[in-house]
Amino acid sequence: MDTVELKGLKYDPVLQDENSGFSIVLSSVLKSKVGTELHRCGATLIHSRWLLTILSNSVNDSSPTNWAVSLGSVLRSGIGALVIPIQNVIIHPAFNSTNMDYDVALLELAAPAPVSYTIQSVCLPSAVHLFPMNAECYITGWGSTREGGSLTNLLQKAAVNIIQQAECQQPYGDVLTNNMMCAGHMEGGKDTCLGDSGGPLTCRQQSGQWFIAGVTSWGHGCGRMGFPGVYTRVTSVRKWISTYIPF
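RE: above sequence
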């Protein structure tokens, strides 16, 4: 069985004045408040006081108060961003560190994030929401733009396809559970990579609204042929989210 690797890889920069606000506001930066502020992972604002990320980004932290979230900037350095401390981290009780099943966590902010042009929350799907294979979907983050490369300072985005579960099961086998979904391109290329973990897979619905379909979790390398990125399926954890965010 291939080793499970955390993910981050994109190609197109997201500009502050670009008409793609979802790319700017959905990928936040989790940073250390102790000493030098360093990029840890991505997270997605789903409520004024709550963000969605992956569990493996936060499970080893001794205290959530050692961390903060940077919002509203396309720069990983956080220039011009609003920084809000994290007061609580809630991990999914069914997380499996062996195969990364239920790799998801909620981050509670110490203060609500104000709504602005660059700070907005994404729509949460219902537990029975279906994302069609031909949906317009994007990945975003500050991760490496190639396997083994360095993180980027300017937020990146890439259009990806939702991969049918049976097709993705072929390369990943039984490690891939129904609580996971795959997105990318089976021929390789655009993908998430190191540094993108916890960031969003967002899809536009016919109404024009953007919904979060997945949370960047793991994969085999970055952009490799036959190995698309693997994401925690948000519809699978929607009821769990509702126990803390009642909407």
